[in-house]
Amino acid sequence: MSSIKNILPVLRMVWDAGPGVVGVNLALRLTAALIPVAVLAVARWIVDAAVAQAGSEREMTRQLVGLVALEFGLAALGGILSRAIQYANVVLAEKYTRHVSLRLLEHASQLDLATYEDPSFYDRLERARVQATDRLVMVEAIARFLQQGITTMSLCIGIFVFSPWILLNIIVCLIPATLAEARFGTQLYAMNFRHTPKRRELEYLRQLGASKESAKELKLFGLSPFLMQRYETLSGKIIEDVLGLWKRAFPRLSLLAMLGTLGYYGAYAFVVYQTAHGELSVGQLTFLIGAIAGANRTFQDLFVSAVGIIDQSLYISDMLAFFAMRPAIRSGQQALQVPRPIRQGFEFREVSFAYPGRTVPVLQSTSFRLAPGERIALIGENGQGKTTLIKLMMRLYDPTAGQILLDGVDLREYDLQDLWSQIGVVFQDFARYEMTAADNIAVGRIEWRTDRERITDASRKSLANTVIDKLPLGYEQMLGRRFEGGVDLSGGEWQKIALGRAYMRDAQFLVLDEPTAALDAQAELDVFNRFGELTSGKMAILISHRFSTVRMADRILVLRDGRISEEGSHEQLMARGGGYAAMYELQASRYR
Ligand SMILES: Nc1ncnc2c1ncn2[C@@H]1O[C@H](COP(=O)(O)OP(=O)(O)OP(=O)(O)O)[C@@H](O)[C@H]1O
User: What number is the average pLDDT over the span 568-581?
Assistant: First the structure.
């Protein structure tokens, strides 16, 4: 029941999604709620009037004709109202889905990168996403509850006027079934909650089994049967759980539902008995039978809706929990703007870092400086922490110990958005946007999306123009295979496009993580011949395993066991004859 408190924030969200349509929906439902009792009341008058006239040879009185017409009018209005409610629901569902999805996207974008690496985050996100796309189940349940509540109330008043005992009898017989339904709803929720990781894995297997990225390997390695078997086992467990729960609950729920029906027929027999003894008119009998049947049904519906609301509010708690998540990495109260130009550059002061949930540090008391205009190459074996180091410089993570300074001020003091706006980056695992070629470059500085001159300029600098000029639709060509008319590119071609984004950014600090790994030898040379000019006056860090690339840097840092083990220009490091020289020799010897 404690989850009931979730209803208010959700109603707030629904209201924000479309106040107008919510108002219309409510007005329609309130009117529709009173139709059943009105229909029964008119039916009672009709029957009594018809019975009074029965046997006489007279024409139907005008009053009777009027009553029948009124009944017809009410029934017709009921039909129109229920259609209108459906229509209002569709509009509200669309608006609500859009509103929540946009909030979801906005909120997800503000969360820490570390959050994305936590599997429980994905479980929560998955549940929140289901809420966003489940289209208003909860809100519909509340609206229905209100409508049913008013209908039930009006019918109950009708019954109460004739006999409070009949009403009591119906209510008492329905309570056990209701409580049992509520308990069942909670058990169902708990089970679905437990299933989220499994369902996420099923979704992953479904995608893996039928995606462009994995199709080649699946065919060649003959992996489909393996994936299918895994899917079958996993979903088998879910089916088993679901069936087990239903099987256990079925006898209890059916028995208690029968008790409810018994209450209804007890009341039914009582009014028939009273009419037979002349204590009720035929019209009153008609009204009461209709009202008892109606109240019995709406009572049950009412409780089902109430259980639905409680049930949904449990699910909603996941969405609210997602929205309540706050990023740890954010701008301070009086955040500073990054100096333009940066005068002293970056300084790592005894920086240590371990990923959240890991005990082994990736960096340990690392110190170095990067001066304005300087280009540093970062090298080291796989997993030594090169990418981690640049993620710290971009404040995608904060150090576990030590400080990173920019112009002598801790990075945490700067406004995050402003800091990021000054960094141009090509990640090792850069994104391939299934959008046009122009947009793929423009994402580097999306505010300049319509500035074709800047886009072409950035693609010239990164050699992306050599790719784009060959595309049938040039800059307007849709890239990737997901959408109609899309053209896929080779790994190196995508890399040139990603490099274009970094130049589009026009930032003070450039970070290139394996920027030429997929480029052919000529393209790599061309890119780096330009790199010198394009980064002049800017700070740049580049990570590479290719020594041909690394040599171009002003200074080279060798990362080893979480520390900078060597530092200097190519010539200095070669002369030292340490680890760098050994690695260089190893690579060079393969070409001789
Ligand atoms: N998000 C993460 N969560 C936990 N551990 C991580 C994460 N990213 C990287 N690591 C670990 O941190 C270490 C350093 O990773 P990093 O990617 O910085 O290495 P790298 O030097 O860039 O390697 P490579 O040359 O293979 O790109 C590795 O042991 C890796 O397993």
Answer: 87
All domains of the chain, ordered by start, with CATH? 2-324 (1.20.1560.10), 346-589 (3.40.50.300)
514 Cα nearest atom in ligand 1? 27
Q: Give distance in angstroms: CA of 423 to centre of ligand 1.
A: 21
pLDDT at 14: 85
d(CA 554, CA 558) in angstroms, rounded, equals 13
Give dist(CA 144, CA 124) in Å, integer. 28
Cα 58 off chain centre by: 70
For 477-507, the pLDDT digits (tens) are: 999 887 888 888 888 888 889 888 888 887 8
The yes-or-no verdict on residue 321 having pLDDT over 60 is yes
Whether the CB-CB separation of 335 and 413 falls below 8 Å is answered with yes
Residue 428 C-alpha to ligand 1 middle, in angstroms?
A: 12
> What are the DSSP E strand ranges found in 56-208?
none
Q: What are the b/e assignments for 179-200, b being 16+ CB within 10 Å?
A: ebbbebbeebbeebeebbeebb
How many angstroms separate the alpha carbon of residue 384 from the centre of ligand 1?
7
pTM of the model: 0.72
In sequence order, what are the beta bridge partners of 405?
347, 410
Whether 384 is in the pocket of ligand 1, judged by its Cβ within 6 Å, is yes
Per DSSP, what are the bridge partners of residue 407?
A: none
The rounded distance, in Å, linking the Cα atoms of 579 and 573 is 9
Residue found under tokens 């009037």: 49
Q: 386 CB under 6 A from ligand 1?
A: yes
Report whether 570 contacts 550 (CB < 8 A): yes
What are 336's strand-pairing partners?
A: 414
Per the rule left: phi > 0, alpha: psi between -120 and 50, beta: everything else, 380 is left
Atom 26 (ligand 1) nearest CA: 382
Most confident among 191-195, 449-453, 532-536 (mean pLDDT)? 449-453
Q: Which residues of 259-272 are buried (b: 16+ CB within 10 A; e: fewer)?
A: ebeebbeebbebbe
Residue 517: the pLDDT is 72
With the C-alpha atoms ordered 266, 269, 275, 281, is the resulting torsion angle positive or negative?
A: positive
pLDDT of residue 434 exceeding 60, the answer is: yes
Beta partners for residue 513, in sequence order? 543
In a mutational test of the pocket of ligand 1, which residue from 112, 329, 353, 362 has the highest number of ligand atoms less than 8 Å from its CB? 362
| CB-based contact 108:327 (threshold 8 Å) | no
Give the rounded percent of residues in the chain with a pLDDT score beyond 90.
23
ipTM of the modeled complex: 0.96
The residue written with tokens 């693609």 in the block is 459
Tell me the CB-side half-sphere exposure of residue 301, using CA atoms within 13 A: 19
Q: How confident is the model at residue 552 (pLDDT cuts 50, 70, 90)?
A: confident
Using the mean position of ligand 1's atoms as its centre, give its distance from the Cα of residue 394 in Å.
16
The DSSP string of 249-274 is HHHHHHHHHHHHHHHHHHHHHHHHHH
pLDDT per position as a tens digit, 8-51? 888 888 889 889 999 999 999 999 989 988 998 999 888 888 88
pLDDT band at residue 136 using 50, 70 and 90 as cut-offs: low
Residues paired with residue 9 on neighbouring β-strands, in sequence order: none
User: Is residue 115 lining ligand 1, measured as CB closer than 6 Å?
Assistant: no
Q: How far apart are CA 554 and CA 373, in angstroms?
A: 10
